[in-house]
Amino acid sequence: MKKSYSYFFYSLFLGVLSYLSVWILLFILSNNHAIPSPTVTIIKMWEIRELLGLHMLASSLRIIIALLLAIITGVPLGILLSMFPRSDHLLSPLLYFLYPLPKVAFLPVFMLFWGLGNFSKILLLFSIIVLQVIILVRDGAKMIPENYQRIMVNFQASIWQQIRYLILPAIFPNILASLRVSIGIALASLFFAENYATDYGLGYLILSAWTKMDYPEMFAGIFCIALLGFFFFRAIDALERFSYKE
Amino acid sequence: MGIIIKNLNFIYEQNQIFKNTDFHFEDNKIYTLVGPSGIGKSTLLDVLTGFKKPQSGTISYQNVQKSEMLTIFQNNQIFPWLTVSEALALPFKIKNISKEQTDSRVKELLKIFELEALAYKRPNALSGGQLQRVAIAQGLTLDPKFLLLDEPTSSLDQEAKEEIQDRLLDEQHKRNNTMIIVTHDIEEAAYLGQEIILVANQQLNKLENPTFGRENRRHSLGFYEFCILLRKQVRQL
Question: According to Swiss-Prot or TrEMBL, what is its membrane topology (chain A) (predicted)?
């Protein structure tokens, strides 16, 4: 346990250090006020630390809820498609049509149908990530060796037992992979999801700072998104380690 | 008693694998199936367990339910995410057997199969022989009346092979179940099979094993002579 804590702080330190190095390099090379110095930004972050905390909390909650919804709906749908080839034949073309669409383009539709509150923001994030969860889960379930399924039939396992003892553990790495990809995309999409009718959220913070031309504050928001991404990714790593611990 | 095959016809990809085949698998015996690759040895196991449906013919299960038959596959028998003790507990969980009973049966199996030191290891940390021992232990958890094994020692070195073979004989002796073992290895067929089935010409040809049951037969002259005879017969197929 102690070892994993020290590794966490070591990787956090390494992440921040490399992030800062690239930032400093860009700051020196660009010599433009649009890229503020890290020192000024860090001072700014300290000044608005409470507000930053609230923005991070609001964004985290939206992402966590969207991820949970995507898992709750995407995993069963992906499993269903893998188990019933006919449903896969029917639905896959639709999935492939929807997958490359830029969901943010539907933002006005989301606002019209589900209002300006949190629901439409979460729904936008959900719509961006759910398709890749479905596709990764379906492909993972299809890759399960035939022998494994025969072993379950051997033991007279019911369909639910096959899902519980075979399919879910077998696709767990795919669920984690889909989460990793989704987190990156969801964080990037915050910028769109939080640019209307809200006072809290990192997307909102960045946009409002940009409008005010307050670049240190804008970079503070960007840094916080990076930090959030780090924590989410580490949480998934921890989940993976916990599930496969000896 | 046992499994009686009558007039079995099985065609796979336009190849007739079995044609009007008859056979009677009796209770409490060990059968080894030998024959060239692709002749239908593994297919027969699939037909017996119902994984593959024959085009015609009957298979009557007398005094045995399909649920009392179990196949141990050549590889990929143990799920990679399960530890050895979890793998042994899986069949009990599926049968909804209580946790206390499962724990005590798993403990017993770990002891019988000398797997206690490996109880918390996953398949990737086990050798081929250890893996096969776990697979057999898992196969025997629910005490199947018919245990079907598809090349159980094909990927093992000689030492591990002999260990698994002796263990199979031991378990069959203790449990009095029927084992049907598919193998490419003539010595294995001669050592394990009480009756050897030569699969050829779309038929199952039975051959009694005169050396079966003799003490220390693995290195006896009689055993070697029988292996030579068997090898000749397989070559002539």
Answer: Multi-pass membrane protein
Q: Looking at beta carbons, which residues of chain B come within 8 Å of A155? A: 70, 90-91, 94-95, 142
- What is the spatial distance between Cα B48 and Cα B67, in angstroms, rounded to a whole number? 12
Q: Is A157 within 8 Å of B94 when comparing Cβ atoms?
A: yes
* Single pTM value for the model: 0.81
The mean pLDDT value for B25-48 works out to 90
Q: Are residues B37 and B150 in the same domain?
A: yes
B76 contacts A147? CB cut-off 8 A: yes
Judgement on whether residues B151 and B221 belong to the same structural domain of the protein: yes
CB atoms A147 and B94 under 8 Å: no
Residues B223 and B151 placed together within one structural domain of the fold? yes
Report yes or no: A24 and A38 within 8 Å, Cβ to Cβ.
yes
Chain B positions touching A243 (Cβ under 8 A) are 81
- From the list A147, A152, A166, which residue is nearest B73 (CB)? A147
B53 and B118 fall within a common domain:
no
Q: Are residues B87 and B50 in the same domain?
A: no
Domain hosting B97: range is 75-144
Do residues B145 and B68 touch, judged by C-beta distance below 8 A? Answer: yes
> Token match 């890749």: residue?
A132
Same domain, B234 and B170: yes
- B151 and B227 together in one domain: yes
Beta bridge partners of residue B178, listed in sequence order: B146
Q: Are B159 and B166 in contact (CB under 8 A)?
A: no
B136 shares a domain with B107: yes
Cβ distance B15 to B72 under 8 Å?
A: no
Say what the ipTM of the complex is.
0.81
Nearest to B94 among A148, A150, A161 (CB): A161
pLDDT of the residue at B161: 86
What long-range pairs does A146-149 form, CB within 8 A, spacing at least 24? A147/B73, A147/B75, A147/B76, A147/B77, A148/B76, A148/B79
CB contact under 8 A, B81 and A169: yes
pLDDT, position A106: 83
Provide the number of structural domains found in chain B. Answer: 2
Tell me whether B52 touches chain A (CB under 8 Å): no
CATH architecture of A48-243: Orthogonal Bundle (1.10)
- In this complex, is the C-beta atom of A244 within 8 Å of any C-beta atom belonging to chain B? yes
Instruction: Specify the CATH number for the domain of residue B14.
Output: 3.40.50.300
Nearest alpha carbon to residue B82 among B114, B123, B126:
B123
How many interchain CB pairs under 8 A, A with B?
A: 47
Q: Is residue B17 part of a domain?
A: yes
Does B119 touch chain A if contact means CB atoms closer than 8 Å? no
Q: Which of B67, B71, B120 shows the shortest C-beta gap to A246? A: B120
pLDDT in tens, chain A (246 residues): 566 778 888 888 888 889 889 999 998 898 888 888 889 899 988 999 999 999 999 999 999 999 999 999 999 999 999 999 899 999 989 989 888 888 888 888 888 888 888 888 899 899 989 999 999 999 999 999 988 988 898 888 999 999 999 999 999 999 999 899 888 888 888 878 887 777 888 888 898 888 888 899 999 999 999 999 999 999 999 888 887 665
